[in-house]
Specification:
The structure is a homodimer of 406-residue chains. In chain A, 36% of the residues lie in helices and 27% in strands. Chain A is α/β, with parallel strands linked by helices and 406 residues long. Chain A folds into 2 domains: 174 residues, Carbamate kinase, CATH 3.40.1160.10; 144 residues, VC0802-like (2-Layer Sandwich), CATH 3.30.2130. Chain A starts with a strand and ends in a 6-residue tail after the last helix. The interface between A and B is large, with 39 and 39 residues.
Chain lengths: 406, 406
């Protein structure tokens, strides 16, 4: 008998009939001979309604974060109760547990708490008594009993953390996509669902625009060695397994291509090539709460260098406002440009295969697509392109590496 | 500096603007120099919506009670978060606590748990740090961490129990009425709001149709000597204080008149006057979950007696069904009649004043109103009348005892 953790997101539990569908799936898993823990999110729309109520109460002030956590935690609590009821209505034993009751202990950073520890005694106890255990995603409690929430992607994190704590054999993340694809199927028609990939590849895909899961859930899974499967809650097709890399994974040079639109780039020209310049720039940006993606600095030429970075287009005005007062002391000028996109090619196989970068550049040049910036990591090559060309670029690269479905 | 517990019901916190009104009232109380604990119910309508969701999930089966508690507890949790936010938006410190976090420990009888203990360490700690503490009414947690709810009137009970545990100086129950009246003002136009009455009088009024509060909250307050005030959340008028009886209370012979419509009576004629007959009747009734109100049996005449009891009209068909199979072995026949009402005259002063009953009967006879049944307790005289005459009767008795506003 293996132990399986299943996680269902807000769309999958969006109304009573969908909750009953989830219950049927969970019951089928138990009937196949497994112990099952189910982690659920708030029903879609519920969280938005709660936020609206909070805004109405708080007027122009931002809602206090401690109370926001207390408020939002009701969303998942509603779903666990309804899901446990649905399972019972199918004639199976089930109990619901809030994050706190399931033993999820977090730090005290409200609205984006980090999991510190899990003491899953109660989960074990109810599982051993023959129950399907339904746990509220996204929430926990501090050591001294304050309700907290885990921030975006928190329910995935709950599922993976519980799976780690109870040493589950598998953690299934049910979602509204079929799995992880070699590229966004809306962009590349021949994109193929991958059967498996490594944690690192998943991380690079996630940070490159394949928004199936938040990076931190994948990082947590990697840290504790929890294999998980991303699959659809609307059918029974197998999804994509994400796990430790294996020898066979390295045979595949390139796992997938991901693209991220709505990017902008900022370049500071002829910056004095002395220590402390980059830190001044990026400290100012970070202090303003702006997330920077790629940073590129080339070798110094005659004592000055150019620094470029990319960021989300929406953040560009804020970034410009921060940098303007700094500009005079920095370099010869600042340019900012939106209308660009990032294309990333990911695969652990590229560590042991040479010529991957060349093949990417060649594919793009065949399409006469200009590369504006290049940045590489051990298992990723990212290039910045004109946004209007990115779909074409993705298809060319996808084709060049033979990623399409056979 | 005194400590005050204030309780606001579902109507008082029915939407964000009403929650802000409550927040203003609470803040004003703190600014008047008091420490304040606020107990709130679910926003009106929320509980009904949750019950509807549960029914949709459970189909024809009754929703499991453990999960119902988990579900319903979200209603009050939503309100405490919004109320704490509203108080903070007015520039005052506030924290919300669920029933469990406030230390309310209950037995494990889901959907109608009883409070076993309160460990209000956290309430004290947050109060001492200058916060207004907002506690979820209606809910608690068992010793082993299961979420429970307290059933009907549970938020009043929470308020009084917290007031007892933290030794509050006063507990204010804010509601949609102005206080406790000498009679229902819709029936007796000259009815007067009482300034104070004793726990026992409040209990008799409550059990006689003055449904301001559930009896068990009043009993709890009496047991732990918690004075409380029933008052309106829509204005600043003083309400009615309910407390230990005092010497001056006894000067008032009659405190008030309460009426209860929609009653029915059942009489079993010529029952053999032997031990065990009454127990057979009322055990059968109790086993069917039917609540009986007055029971009257007169002295035995020639070895047989008549037993009558009243009950809610809606329960009459069920009672008849239960008694029919018993009837033959019991007496000469059973009659059942609805269209009756109960009128009760309540006052601790009647213990030391004679002639109260005579005065009630005289008032009714002046109106030519027939008395069908009579039952008395130490501080109450209750009579059963034709329902169509009860308003007239209430006015006559109210007038006879000089209860009207001066």
């Amino acid at each position: 008998m293996s132990v399986i953790v299943q996680k269902y997101g807000g769309t999958s539990v969006g109304d009573p009939s969908r909750i009953l569908n989830v219950a049927r799936r969970v019951v089928a898993t138990q009937e196949a001979g497994h112990k099952v823990v189910v982690v659920v999110s708030a029903m879609s729309g519920v969280t938005d309604n709660l936020i609206k109520l909070a805004r109405e109460v708080c007027g122009d002030l931002p809602p206090p974060e401690r109370e926001m956590d207390m408020l939002l935690a009701t969303g998942e609590q509603t779903t666990i109760a309804l899901t446990a009821m649905a399972i019972q209505s199918l004639g199976h034993q089930a109990v619901s547990l809030t994050g706190a009751q399931a033993g999820i202990v977090t730090d005290g950073v409200h609205t984006k708490a980090k999991i510190r520890d899990i003491t899953p005694a109660r989960v074990h106890q109810f599982l051993d008594a023959g129950n399907i255990v339904v746990v509220a995603g996204f929430q926990g409690e501090t050591d001294d009993g304050q309700t907290t929430t885990l921030g975006r992607g928190g329910s995935d994190l709950t599922a993976i953390a519980i799976a780690a704590a109870i040493k589950a054999d598998l953690c299934q993340i049910f979602t509204d996509v079929e799995g992880v694809f070699t590229c966004d199927p809306r962009v590349v028609k021949t994109a193929r669902k991958m059967n498996e990939l490594s944690y690192d590849e998943m991380l690079e895909m996630a940070s490159s625009g394949s928004k199936v899961m938040q990076s931190r859930s994948v990082e947590f899974a990697k840290k504790f060695g929890v294999p998980f499967e991303v699959r659809s809650s609307f059918n029974n097709n197998p999804g994509t397994i994400v796990k430790e890399e294996t020898m066979s994974m390295e045979q595949v040079v390139i796992r997938g291509v991901s693209i991220e639109r709505n990017q902008a780039k900022v370049t500071i020209f002829q910056v004095a090539d002395t220590p402390g310049i980059a830190s001044r720039v990026f400290k100012a940006i970070a202090d303003a709460g702006i997330a920077v993606d790629m940073i590129v600095q080339n070798v110094s030429l005659q004592g000055t260098t150019d620094i470029s970075f990319t960021l989300n287009k929406d953040e560009l005005p804020k970034a410009q406002k921060v940098l303007e007062p700094l500009a005079e002391g920095l370099g010869k000028g600042i340019t900012a440009q939106d209308g660009i996109a990032k294309l990333s090619v990911v695969g652990i196989g590229m560590r042991s295969h040479s010529g991957v970068a060349a093949k990417v550049f060649e594919a793009l040049s065949q399409g006469n697509i200009n590369i504006q910036m290049i940045s590489t990591s051990e298992i990723k090559i990212a290039v910045v392109l004109e946004e209007t060309r990115v779909a074409e670029a993705a298809n060319l690269v996808h084709e060049a590496f033979g990623l399409s479905a056979v």
